[in-house]
Each structure stands twice: as C-alpha cells, then as structure tokens.
Amino acid sequence: MQIKKLILLETFDTNTYLIWDRIEKVGTVIDPANKAEVIFKESQRLGFEIKYIINTHGHGDHIGANGKLKELTGAEICIHQLDNDKLKNPELNFSIFFDYHVTSPSADRFLEDNEIISIGSEQLKVLHTPGHSIGSICLLGNGFLISGDTLFFEGVGRTDLPGSDENELRQSIKEKLFILPDRTKVFPGHGGVTTIGHEKSHNPFIIF
Ligand SMILES: [Zn+2]
Ligand SMILES: [Zn+2]
Q1: Does the pLDDT of residue 98 top 90, yes or no?
Q2: Within a domain: residue 18?
Q3: pTM above 0.90?
C-alpha cells in the first residue's frame, strides 16, 4: 500500500492522505481538507482511481473538499454515523467560527468499529476512537495507522470543544491504539509522523 501526504489547507495544517494499491490502481483519500482539483490531479498523476473519500471525523478542516472531489471522481463519502450531522452544518463542524463556511454532502456509507475497507488487494480496518469528537475514527493498515485528530506526535486532539470528551479520548487511545505493535507508524491529522512505541513512552497527555 502506498501513502502520500498533502497539505492543502495551510491555515489549519491539516494532513490529507492518499492511500492506494499500485497494482490494482485504486485508492482512497482521507480527510480532503481543501483543493479537490489538486487531489484529483495528484491521483491521476500517481495512476489510481479514487474509490472512497474517508473522513476521520466531521470537523471543517477535514471535509472541505468532500463535495467537489465526489463530483470529480464519483467516490463514496464515508464517515462514522455519529459525526455525519457535522458534514452539512457549519456550526456543528465549527467552520463558521473561523469565517470558513464548510459543508459537505451527506455520507454515502457509514463506517463502524472493526469494519474492513478494501482498497484493491489491501485493507484498512476502522477503529472507532471517540474523544476529540464522538464519531472520530482511526484507520489501521498493514503496519500503519491513520490517527486523525485522536493521536498526534507527542500530543492529542483538542477536548475543549463541544462534543469532545477528554476521558473518552484517553480511553480510546489506551484501549484501541496503545495495544498495537510499538513499531506501528502513525500518520496523524496534523503534524509529523510518529509511532505507537514513541507515543507510549513520550506522549505527555496519556498518563498510565
Ligand atoms: Zn478535529
Ligand atoms: Zn483537525
């Protein structure tokens, strides 16, 4: 499985990830924050068809290009059901508070805990990790994790927002992420790459 990171929404420094199977030439876009045309062109340049648009959660800085990208590709928008109401509502997705009015079409598919998403011959497993938002998910691939705003390099997502829950976030990270092998590479929704092992020993927000 191939992974490429794009930063298309500089104000929030959101990471958009392209994940694809080079042999079968199909892939997914995770958290298309902005600039659908750039994402689409990049997928064409890399030689794969976008089958899914997956949002790790429904905040405005992760969903901005959903609608346009769906128009360009016909890909299915996928999110956990508990964050679906954020897609259409700039107050619930907080974009309105940043003078950045974002909406997205409703999801085509709701993702559930432990569900498997097939991308060509490769697979991503959905982990429901509520805390930063009630419908936050992480995606587990072979040796790597897309962590959204749940886990960052030596940090975690905000829990001071309406709908966030600090205890739930801690529980999600401990019970669903820190049980993964230490060498698992973590690609977060903001900032640089880390590993589960590094976060288990260095993350100041998770106290055992
Ligand atoms: Zn967020
Ligand atoms: Zn974010």
Answers
A1: no
A2: yes
A3: yes
Task: Identify which ligand lies nearest to the alpha carbon of 94.
Answer: 1
| pLDDT tens per residue across span 6-46 | 999 988 999 999 999 999 999 999 999 999 999 999 999 99
| Ligand 1 midpoint to CA 166 (Å) | 13
Q: Does residue 208 sit within a domain?
A: no
162 occurs within a structural domain: yes
User: Any idea what the CATH number is for the domain that residue 46 is in?
Assistant: 3.60.15.10
Q: What is the 3-state secondary structure (H, E, C) of the chain?
A: CEEEEEECCCCCCEEEEEEEECCCCEEEEECCCCCHHHHHHHHHHHCCEEEEEECCCCCHHHCCCHHHHHHHHCCEEEEEHHHHHHHCCCCCCCHHHHCCCCCCCCCCEEECCCCEEEECCEEEEEEECCCCCCCCEEEECCCEEEEECCEECCEECCCCCCCCCHHHHHHHHHHHHCCCCCCCEEEECECCCEEHHHHHHHCCCCCC
pLDDT tens per residue, range 101-146: 999 999 999 999 999 999 999 999 999 999 999 999 999 999 999 9
* Structural domain harbouring 23: 2-202
Tell me how far the alpha carbon of residue 153 lies from the centroid of ligand 2, in angstroms.
14
Does residue 51 fall inside a structural domain? yes
Instruction: Give the chain's domain count.
Output: 1
CA of 59 to the centre of ligand 1 (A): 5
